[in-house]
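Subject: sequence -> structure tokens, single chain

Hey, anyone have a minute? Need the predicted structure for the following. Not urgent.
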Amino acid sequence: MSTLTPAAPQNSGPARSTSPTALNTGSRAARRRGKARMDPTRNNTAAGIAAWLLALLFAVPVLWMVLTSFHSETDAATNPPSVAANLTLDAYREFFGETSGVSPWPSLINSATASILSTVLVLLLAFPAAYALSIRPVKKWTDVMFFFLSTKMMPVVAAILPLYLFARTVGALDNIWFLILMYTSMNLPIAVWMMRSFLAEVPEEMLEAAQIDGANLLLILRKIIAPVAMPGIAATALICFIFSWNELLLARVLTGVVAGTAPVFLTGFVSGQGLFLAKVCAAAVVISLPVLFAGFAAQDKLVQGLSLGAVK
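Reply:
Had a minute. Here:
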């Protein structure tokens, strides 16, 4: 009687090597390919170069304006521009009235008065409005926000004639207080929109704890909400100040000799006859300094404020 033995299994193909050396080599190659695809150093370098190029694109016109302000009118008007021309302070002397006899200080004071007071009024009005639209939202608060936004859709030039006729009727032409009112109404919608997003980040637990301790609404606004949202308030104040300081159309139409602002004074150097480029550049540099100083002084609060409502 014969004994049956099981047949040996047949291989369908060549045996694959699974040695540790081959596995380690493959994993190292895969890691190298992954590092090549996701190299953070290379990405950061490209982003840094792009940021520097963009900053240079914005900085070159400003630097050219500053350089032109130190040139004489003849050198400033040459074509192509003369970069290595002699430097002089004649344009700044004329801006400050040493040669023309017209002082810029009344216009600068008017701009500072209108910008600062309108910014204070905007904050006083926008802060409780933003509280009512964010922390304690009223009914149909989205419709209210859309109404605020819709007021910025109409261009100022479309409303300048009715405003001029109204100011002439009530005797408010060339009046700094009427200009302050216009700047307040101009900046109030954007301030409410900004502060609403900032106040929405205030933790509700802090407000509930304050209410349990017996704090009233004014105390909560002043002692709890305002300190937490101070970066956002500072950012809103700086933007409103910049908008008011740089505004030209309303000031040009509604003011004259008494309430004229710095941008209006700058346009007085533009003439149809003669050379004026150096004087205009000098005036633009001087008028830009308060905004630059305010921005540098509040840059920490500005960065915190603009990023306060960006991440949920």
